């Protein structure tokens, strides 16, 4: 019983979720169809896109893949071709997730805690050591009273954003990417200050060896490696502390995305600017020349609502308000120098199919959808006395319905309710379960009945000339046929002129002839039907030795 309740609960949860479509990521072909249906969040990472972490509808976390440097967090360096549950994070809900090139992992929970594991040669785990982390370790130094809401990783450094708009960084610092003013590696979280000191940061991003922060006024602050002009400062010198991006003066930036050595920003007016490395056309400017200043990218006349890039690839993508998805840069070995319209519906699919490696640019996520469609709303109103304007009295019980819906959905009711002012209709021709199933079908387009009750509904469907319902009843009967009820179902098929079903039941009886002829149904079979059955059975050779 508990198992059934759990199954119903799961189905209810699944129906309130738009299923997360991960089918374009090759590594997910290792998961069964049942496992894929339960996935709620996922991130594909690693130097070849061969590792994945995902969460399920019941908040369990699973990992799969090659497990380089223990980046699956399982406590060992064994690869796994089957999903393994990450028990050490049991009950934790993921708010933000990022990964480096080692790879190392930085994860923020919905409670604002930070966990790290994986590669740690440059102290990028923030635990004060340079030992690889085989299991998730909570990082609380300098973060103990903070709630982290977003995380970002460069190749070997880590960046987090707190709910009060502060930024903390740690790890590899050869180019000033930790923002401390030096080039010494940073073993524990350190607040990034300088000209960010009194600013409220709203979103962050990391390139391979640089950092970006957008503040609440829409200004962008940059620091770290700048050899390809990826900081957008008009120069190629590294920046060991945050510096305001003056070239975007007067433009309010909403989002920033960093590729390996290029940067994209999205403004509040839906415009995209790009700068940095361009050897694969990843700036989308129509050439392969690096740009050290922000350059507008022309995607189409429509507003852009999303930009996508990832520190381990040279690929760029964007989505328009109209739902068009464009890609440019390195796309499966080709250099695409202008935004190219794809057939995808989301930017994630660009990275699954065209990025090298095929890794996620963000945590793929599907949220519960509270919006009810018209069909879902109608389903909920069936047999609801609060909104109904018509009652059917069947076998002494009421079934509540809505005249307008019945007229729209059924020819019979369109005529029978036309001038009918009554709000109660008595029904004696059909049983309560059958008539209720019929009315429910008009609200839901589906039926859930036993094969025996479906026979009664088949009678009703024939009477009301509801051909689609007739087909559904036949399907239900076919699925529920067994030796005991085969003759009764055959009789019903003949009675209601359901030829396809009659043929099916007849074949079933012939294939199970010995058992069927010993049932009570066969013994009580109608004389004419029995004669017909024997005649037909002999014609198909049922009685040959």
Automatic annotation (TrEMBL):
PROSITE patterns: BTB, RCC1_2, RCC1_3. Residues 388-451 form the BTB domain. One of its GO terms (cellular component) is acrosomal vesicle. InterPro entries: BTB/POZ_dom (IPR000210), RCC1-like_dom (IPR058923), RCC1/BLIP-II (IPR009091), Reg_chr_condens (IPR000408), Signaling_Regulatory_Domain (IPR051625), SKP1/BTB/POZ_sf (IPR011333). It comes from the Eukaryota. Keywords: Cytoplasmic vesicle, Repeat. It is found in: Cytoplasmic vesicle, Secretory vesicle, Acrosome. Pfam families: BTB, WD40_RLD. RCC repeats lie at residues 112-164, 165-217, 218-269, 270-321. PANTHER family: BTK-BINDING PROTEIN-RELATED (PTHR22872), RCC1 AND BTB DOMAIN CONTAINING PROTEIN 2 (PTHR22872:SF3). This is RCC1 and BTB domain-containing protein 2. It comes from Colobus angolensis palliatus (Peters' Angolan colobus).
């Amino acid at each position: 019983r508990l198992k059934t309740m759990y199954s119903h609960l799961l189905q209810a949860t699944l129906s309130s979720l738009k299923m997360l479509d991960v089918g374009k990521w090759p590594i997910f072909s290792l998961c069964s169809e049942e496992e894929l249906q339960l996935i709620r969040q996922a991130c594909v990472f690693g130097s070849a896109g061969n590792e994945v972490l995902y969460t399920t509808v019941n908040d369990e976390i699973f990992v799969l893949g090659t497990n380089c440097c223990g980046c699956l967090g399982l406590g060992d360096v064994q690869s796994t071709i089957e999903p393994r549950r990450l028990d050490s994070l049991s009950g934790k809900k993921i708010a933000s997730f990022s990964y480096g090139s080692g790879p190392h992992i930085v994860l923020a929970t919905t409670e604002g805690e930070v966990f790290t594991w994986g590669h740690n040669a440059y102290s990028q785990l923030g635990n004060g050591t340079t030992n690889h982390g085989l299991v998730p370790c909570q990082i609380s130094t300098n973060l103990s009273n903070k709630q982290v809401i977003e995380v970002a990783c460069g190749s070997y450094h880590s960046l987090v954003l707190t709910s009060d708009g502060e930024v903390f960084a740690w790890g590899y610092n050869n180019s000033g990417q930790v923002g401390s003013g030096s080039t010494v590696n940073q073993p524990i979280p350190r607040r990034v200050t300088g000209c960010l000191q009194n600013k409220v940061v709203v979103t962050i991003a990391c390139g391979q060896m640089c950092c970006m922060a957008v503040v609440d006024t829409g200004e962008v602050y940059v620091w770290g490696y700048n050899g390809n002009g990826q900081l957008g400062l008009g120069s190629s010198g590294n920046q060991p502390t945050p510096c305001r991006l003056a070239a975007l003066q007067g433009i309010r930036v909403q989002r920033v995305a960093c590729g390996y050595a290029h940067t994209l920003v999205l403004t509040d007016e839906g415009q995209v600017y790009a700068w940095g490395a361009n050897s694969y056309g990843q700036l989308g400017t129509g050439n392969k020349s690096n740009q050290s200043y922000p350059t507008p990218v022309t995607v189409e006349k429509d507003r852009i609502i999303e930009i996508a890039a990832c520190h381990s690839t040279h690929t760029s993508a964007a989505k328009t308000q109209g739902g068009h998805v464009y890609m440019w840069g390195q796309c499966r070995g080709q250099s695409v120098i202008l935004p190219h319209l794809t057939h995808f519906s989301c930017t994630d699919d660009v990275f699954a199919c065209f990025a090298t490696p095929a890794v996620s640019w963000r945590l793929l996520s599907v949220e519960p959808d509270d919006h009810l469609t018209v069909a879902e709303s109608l389903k909920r109103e069936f047999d609801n006395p609060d909104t109904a304007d018509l009652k059917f009295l069947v076998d002494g019980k009421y079934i509540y319905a809505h005249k307008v819906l019945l007229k729209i959905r059924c020819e019979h009711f369109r005529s029978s309710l036309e001038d009918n002012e009554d709000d109660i209709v008595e029904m004696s021709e059909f049983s309560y379960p059958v008539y209720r199933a019929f009315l429910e079908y008009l609200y839901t387009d589906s039926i859930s009945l036993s094969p025996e009750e479906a026979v009664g509904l088949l009678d009703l469907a024939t009477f009301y000339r509801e051909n689609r319902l007739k087909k559904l009843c036949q399907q239900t009967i076919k699925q529920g046929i067994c030796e005991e009820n085969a003759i009764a179902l055959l009789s019903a098929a003949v009675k209601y002129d359901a030829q396809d079903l009659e043929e099916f039941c007849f074949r079933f009886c012939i294939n199970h002839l010995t058992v069927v002829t010993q049932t009570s149904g066969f013994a009580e079979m109608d004389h004419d039907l029995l004669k017909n059955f024997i005649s037909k059975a002999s014609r198909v050779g049922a009685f040959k030795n």
